[in-house]
User: What shape does this take?
Amino acid sequence: MRASLSITHRCNLACQYCYSGRSDKPDMSVATARKAVDFLLGLPRSAGVLKFGFFGGEPLLRLDLMREVTPYVRETAARVERPVDLSITTNGLLLDGPTLDFLEREDFSVCLSLDGPRDVHDVNRRYPDGRGSFGEVREGLCLAVGRLRHVQVNAVYGPDTVGRLADTVRFIVGLGAHGTHLSPNITAQWTDDSLTELWGAFEAIADFYIECYRAGQALALNVIDSKVIALLKHGLSSEDRCRMGECEWGVAPSGNLYPCERLVGEDDDATLCLGNVHTGLDLGRQSALVSRRGNHSVPCTTCNLRPYCHNTCGCTNSRMTGRTDLASVALCASERASIYAARRALLALQDDSLFLDHFMGYLRAGCDASPAVR
Assistant: This one.
């Protein structure tokens, strides 16, 4: 199960594609955070570890709350005999020495948002006054990589940056990140030309991936690794697909419950709010949402790539088409390009011992090559 506390709507950046809301509503209180922990750890158990994240806005603006709530998460998890992994999704601007001391001591994994080299990153990730944030974000990443056990970079690509996607991967790998997660801009208007560009971009990524392994350097790259696993398994299992409303949870600063942290937004969408940690789960709304999971796009029903496609992500679908159960043309293009890139890499590296050992690592960890970081 994955659960995230969106502890503040506030952020020190004003990214062009932000979906976390520009709300001036209050931050999450300690009482609400503790109540959310009780609620989440009181849900019916599912197999495996509870992946518990802090989200925003920029969650490090409320490091004080994180310091207070983290021991409570661990104590409550131990009391109910539930293993828990802690993570944070951050823009990296507040990763100073004391903050890294805390994250290292509490064994947090970090997902840091960096879209690529300066001319790519600064297209969308800017300060409120319009200045680019690249220099400070890169500095935060380098500090984190030097201190923490697992630092993953999340790079968002859109129609305005897709042509530089392979350069972005090369750049992030060169900075020493432990993993790279590429995410399409789910708020963008994708044109036919920009979707066509995806194919060349993903081909170039596959070639770089192959080049690295042949040079003795292993890569953890979600758009390749997750699809290689799906190909080796002859398709995604039900556990690999979106289970929002049952195994995916996001808690707004108000305590309102959403089926994913990416759907909290301004915390004003009653159709997606499933209750509140103080008053409980609305079982009727939960049931209605679960019935709308999956992907009911007609062209997808006969597609030969359907078994390998992550087209059931409810939050992505909702942002791109307005429906949790309807995939967009842009998501289809991205998924198809990713599947073919992974096939290209798998065929090229099927006898490479480093490549095989890398995927044995996923097997030992439970085959999760697509962490829910955004």
